[in-house]
Specification:
This protein has three domains: 110 residues, no CATH class; 71 residues, no CATH class; 147 residues, NAD(P)-binding Rossmann-like Domain (Rossmann fold). It is built from eleven helices and 15 strands. Helix 6 packs across helix 11 and helix 8 packs across helix 9. The chain is α/β, with parallel strands linked by helices and 362 residues long. A six-stranded parallel sheet has the order 12-11-10-13-14-15, sandwiched between helices.
Length: 362
């Protein structure tokens, strides 16, 4: 979502009276690739660009292709094959070993099918959204958000809409993007766009600075509960939202919410943990040793509020991956990496120990 938000913000600053632009979107990946389907790059006619569709091996050619789309004023799809030992093939020898389809779409602010305003409408979504784009066949580049009640009726290819419906529901169920080609020789990129992770963090100490800076760099949303009257303005500037530490309520949150208790205060954590467990957050991290959290569990049970086994599975204590962290920056890295692995459904182990592909493949 960070890349989408950056592209939307850059797009809004373009003066289309003097500048033209195009959007490059990875719509299919077969084999290995540094970026996956859904990666985007905004290109201006002066040669500047924002975002990326690879680790740098394709951007140069993609820049030229995007400028061509701007000049011709129509969309096109280019296939990059980095699996071939062909000296003339872009990306050869760089280790990607994949086939990448990229859709180049000229951007016209007056075009009803301009994809950027559609992406802008998703910037603050808190639920997964399905975006469907035509990547082969008539109306190349046509895109529409999936609406269950109206999709079959409003999609420009009525017969295809009903045929594609099971594939769309599969993507919604798995939260994975897919590309499908149908008997009508029309290919659809069914893209799942997920909300950014939202981290609700409690604390007021210096270790918040690297934690929030890294979360900001990741493009995550953050809500900070702290003593606003005493907090430094530089700290408050790192957060999406700020709440006074005396506030008793914690937002209900959603499936993409994580809560981290970084107060370094036993009594505060004892009060906040039951509140956190009432939310929908599936990750609740607590700083400090495990025995401290066990003490909190015992105190809550003595007060008649036992923490169930299911809720204990939501609590990560001590918070963070075992990477030998010692400094505030390293601890922040450890916790944020654990949060990412949690929401990705990964174990957080070394990639060299992973069996099979790094990314799930179609």
């Amino acid at each position: 979502m960070k890349e989408i938000r950056s592209i939307v913000n850059a797009y809004r600053s373009i003066d289309f009276a003097t500048t033209r632009a195009a959007l490059a979107t990875v719509v299919r990946v077969e084999g290995s690739s540094y970026r996956r389907a859904g990666a985007r790059m905004l290109v201006l006619d002066n040669g500047t660009y924002l975002g990326g569709i690879s680790g740098g091996c394709l951007e140069g050619d993609a820049l030229r292709r995007a400028q061509k789309a701007i000049g011709l004023r129509h969309a096109s799809v280019v296939t990059y094959d980095t699996t071939q030992d062909d000296d003339h093939q872009v990306g050869v020898g760089l280790g990607c070993q994949g086939i990448i389809d990229v859709l180049f779409t000229p951007l016209d602010p007056d075009d009803a099918n301009n994809p950027v305003p559609v992406l802008a409408s998703l910037s603050n979504t808190r639920t997964p959204v399905c975006l469907i784009t035509v990547t082969q066949g008539p109306r190349l580049g046509f895109n529409v958000l999936f609406e269950p009640q109206s999709f079959v009726r409003t999609f420009p290819f009525p017969g295809l809409a009903a045929q594609a419906l099971p594939d769309i529901h599969d993507c919604l169920a798995s939260l994975q993007s897919r590309t499908h080609t149908y008997s009508t020789d029309i290919t659809l990129f069914i893209e799942m766009i997920l909300p950014p992770i939202h981290v609700v963090v409690f604390g007021s100490n210096n270790d918040l600075y690297p934690f929030l800076r890294m979360a900001l760099e990741l493009g995550w949303d953050t809500s900070l509960y702290t003593n606003i009257l005493r907090a430094d303005k530089a700290l408050l500037a790192l957060t999406t939202a700020t709440h006074d530490h005396s506030t008793d309520t914690i937002p209900e949150g959603d499936a993409y919410t994580a809560i981290v208790l970084m107060t370094h205060d036993y009594k505060t954590d004892l009060r906040r943990l039951p509140q956190a467990l009432k939310t929908k957050a599936s990750y609740i991290g607590i700083l400090g040793p495990r025995k401290r959290t066990e003490r909190i569990y015992a105190a809550l049970e003595a007060d008649g509020y036992p923490v169930s086994d299911a809720d204990r599975q939501r609590v990560y204590s001590p918070a963070g991956l075992d990477i030998g962290s010692a400094t505030p920056e390293e601890i922040a890295l450890s916790i944020l990496a654990e949060i990412r692995s949690h929401f990705a459904g990964r174990t957080g182990t070394s990639l060299r120990l992973r069996q099979g592909a790094i990314y799930q493949r179609q």
